[in-house]
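Students often ask what a holo structure prediction actually looks like on paper. The answer is less mysterious than it sounds. You provide the chain, you provide the ligand, and the output is a string of discrete structure tokens encoding the 3D arrangement of the protein together with FE2/S2 (inorganic) cluster.
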Amino acid sequence: MKVLTKNTDYAIRALLALAAKKGCFISAKSIATEHDIPYQFLRRLLQEMIRHNLIVSKEGVQGGFMMEKDPDEITVTELIEIFQGKVQVSECMFRKQICGNRARCVLRHEIMRIESVVQSEFEKVTIGKLLRDLESANQVTQ
Amino acid sequence: MKVLTKNTDYAIRALLALAAKKGCFISAKSIATEHDIPYQFLRRLLQEMIRHNLIVSKEGVQGGFMMEKDPDEITVTELIEIFQGKVQVSECMFRKQICGNRARCVLRHEIMRIESVVQSEFEKVTIGKLLRDLESANQVTQ
DNA sequence: TTTAATTGATACCAATATAGTATCAGTTAA
DNA sequence: TTAACTGATACTATATTGGTATCAATTAAA
Ligand code: FES
Ligand code: FES
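The corresponding structure tokens follow.
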């Protein structure tokens, strides 16, 4: 069971690259080569993130992509939702036969509780936090 | 993003059916019809659960499947691992370029922390617990 | 003003995972 | 002897994921 797919994985890495150079326009090509992400795949992800107002773009020579939203406000939960759809444990376990009362269903409550725990854990992890972790890790090893 | 696939969903339901009639052999056919699970699909899941010593079977007429392991010892985590593979957030985010030091990688720590949170949440949910929830829910509604 | 570097948009393809079906041999209670 | 069962395994269909290709539009710079 994979929690993060390539979409999300690559998107996080691209955002880290942009966050590290906030205010500058960085081309998709340079991000792709520097971070070992398939170019056309990355392009699609970047366009999707524009639609969600995480980043902005500039066309033409010297163009590229730039961080728009505050990195500390971009959570992994948000990225998962964009690229993998909303986290849901199960559409609705135990339909029909077993579970007659959807509203009061104890199982459903159990499931929803877990859903919210998972989500809140991923919400604690923001691009901003990851970037700081990354930078301090690099200092140690250099 | 779906956390539980049909495999796991059906397996849980089948186990609940068996746990509710502990000590008896129940045929795959009756479980399938009563709980609206595709018969051949269910058969495969049951065989897989035999291999993992969750249940046992008896061949021939009046045969079927019976709970083997204590329902309170069967966690949703275990079922996810059987049917969807071990929970892993990402194979290894930020390989190569960014992350030179696998052992000390802060990002990796962050990811592993979340992994363990997710796992421990699902470990709290056992077949035994679900069954009791289910039974008390049924009492209320009847 | 031409050109090369760029994004926008979109269609396509390949690989893998998920969901479901079919078949036939072997076992066993009735 | 037979019908109700499981064991084993192969097959198919569909969806998701991962990746590639193409071409038009834009723009800084030569
Ligand atoms: S599990 Fe869906 S309503 Fe109870
Ligand atoms: S993310 Fe894999 S070692 Fe750092």
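Chain B has six helices and two strands.
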